[in-house]
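Board notes, transcribed. Complex of a protein with adenosine-5'-diphosphate.
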Amino acid sequence: MMVPAAVELGVEIRVLAENEGMSAAIAATAVGDYTDLATVRDFARDVDVLTFDHEHVPQAVLRALVAEGVQVHPGPDALQYAQDKLRMRERLASLGIPMPDWARIETAEELDAFIADHGGHAVVKTARGGYDGKGVRVVTSAAQAEEWFLALDEDGRGGALLAEELVDFRRELAQLVARRPSGDITLWPVVESVQKDGVCAEVIAPAPSAAGREAEMAARIGTTIAEELGVTGVLAVELFETTDERILVNELAMRPHNTGHWTIDGSTTSQFEQHLRAVLDLPFGATGHRDPWSVMVNILGGPTVRTLDEATALAMADQPTAKLHLYGKEPRPGRKVGHITTGGDDLDEVVFQARAAAAFFQD
Ligand code: ADP
């Protein structure tokens, strides 16, 4: 999704795709293993700036490239906090950022003690490698996370688990920020994200009735994190709004993020364009929203998946103003294969249209 933005900016872009079957392979100029230093070094040989659309390129690879003079944005010093949830918690705690109560857990005894102190349950997370709710589990006893303890010493898993209080949240918000190496910062309005089974299902932009205090707190938190961690590119800060009106940080993503997909159709400057401007240290575009409301609904593979051409024809015939984005991914149950964005001035209507169009793709 960065490619159309690059074309519009007149920026030459190269893409290293993991393998031929990936959706990035549509735009790939190279296919190879992003965990292999020689592969990434070879790819980076004649580019001005290296950036990513996920956070899994190993620290060792990034640090070696930086040492060789490659411009990497976001840099490994910032990216480590999006790669490791325990490091993120430790760092944000040192900045006084509001967060759920949390602890570093190395043994089952420590987890059982944390559970006992937090009302009989806890949210346990693997520090690294989780996404879309994989690596997140609500437990009432350490035994329910037994295999995660056993895997702790395996390569790349980190030496400990993260335990958090189970937050009684009213809703989830996300603050999207972009920062240039020269320090310029820009923010989109805070959005509401609705999760189902740990996966983002819908995003409403801006978050309903968040014009005042919540928006201000989200913006302040997003700005502080981007500056203090030295983030370059797009940063998404996932937030909980609690029933007692606090805003707590859930997690960070340092790349264009699902909660910002609405910006492609709903904002003057999309997150993908802004990310490119940021990593190239070019002046930012405006981040205002075009319609009073934008709604993004993810298209997930269902138990059975309609053929995309059949569903596309139905969705577009019935909801002609809905904007469709498909990723060219093989549909599998639960996999994000595309999204729909709608916009307008009646929120209920905009939500209805987006859901109706997305529903044609699912059973
Ligand atoms: P991932 O890295 O897989 O996206 P997250 O840490 O964002 O994992 O958690 C996924 C979802 O699980 C969140 O969006 C939220 O709905 C729920 N969740 C995570 N942490 C907590 C918590 N401490 N309390 C309550 N719900 C949580």
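The mean pLDDT is 92. The longest strand covers residues 169-179.
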